[in-house]
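Example record

Each entry pairs one chain with its bound ligand, FE2/S2 (inorganic) cluster.
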Amino acid sequence: MSRVVAEDPGRFLRTFDLVFEDPADRAGFTYLPGQFCEISILGKGESPFGIASSPTEDGHLRFTVNRTGSVTEEIHALREGDIVGMRGPMGNWYPVDLFRGGGVVIIGGGFAFTTLRSLLVYLLAHRSEYRDITVIYGARSPELLLYRDELAAWAARDDLALHLTIDRPVDGWDGLTGFVPSVTKSLAPSPADTHAVVCGPPVMIKFTLPVLTELGFPDERIFTSLERRMKCGIGKCGRCNIGPKYVCIDGPVFSMSELRENPEPV
Ligand SMILES: Cc1cc2nc3c(=O)[nH]c(=O)nc-3n(C[C@H](O)[C@H](O)[C@H](O)COP(=O)(O)OP(=O)(O)OC[C@H]3O[C@@H](n4cnc5c(N)ncnc54)[C@H](O)[C@@H]3O)c2cc1C
Ligand code: FES
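Structure tokens for the complex follow.
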């Protein structure tokens, strides 16, 4: 553990930078935005977390962890210099090759912005290969937006349209207010040669996907990342299925076309 940052005043959200004990392991660890790892605490258990760093960043792997139960409580107790176990990278990724040459709309809600940060940093590192990039990111309140220093830097760029929204107006907030699906509807990003990526709490995903359809994004150009409870992470235990698919190996990233084939709700 090389760096620990508290993201919110309530200290439910912490960002951890991990470095490999053996630098050779880092060299052999290749991943793309959207993938996840299983992080384990000896004697306590293991949980999956999306990788928040981008492969274009050197040195560390970043994770942002919401303290919700036993494993995440133990992870929150970690300090710089502590050692954790990790399996990964796991799962599939946002299809950045498919996005190349066109526009990308990134839509995020709450602390699920982690793998979207990875995607955005990746796209910005290859900026000339993608057309316009739009980010719509919402949280309940300003202090629950992740990576606030970076948000300020991204807002200042002229090659990126960043729209931040919070649920209700508060003093000092000069961004948008309203839930992500309705903000997306009113901003109405153009679907022309553009892919959309959505990641957030299930309720946000549920109401944002139809908005994208209404705006004219075809199913094969809408992607979302899903969460299910996991155990093995490698397609063996059958814990994480959505219909016939396993989120751990067929996902976590699915296109809207794939989801339509599935009888289960998001
Ligand atoms: C692919 C994937 C990527 C994820 N990425 C992140 C991430 O970047 N940051 C992050 O903080 N969390 C992430 N999660 C969720 C994280 O894995 C769970 O919050 C964690 O396993 C909870 O472990 P725990 O032992 O602390 O909680 P537990 O004691 O097991 O459970 C505490 C509470 O959390 C709920 N819970 C547990 N697992 C999940 C889950 N998968 N989805 C929804 N609710 C759950 C339980 O129902 C319970 O109410 C991800 C999950 C998946 C499947
Ligand atoms: S977690 Fe075991 S099959 Fe997906």
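Residues 230-233, 235-240, 246, 248 surround FE2/S2 (inorganic) cluster (ligand 2) (CB under 6 Å).
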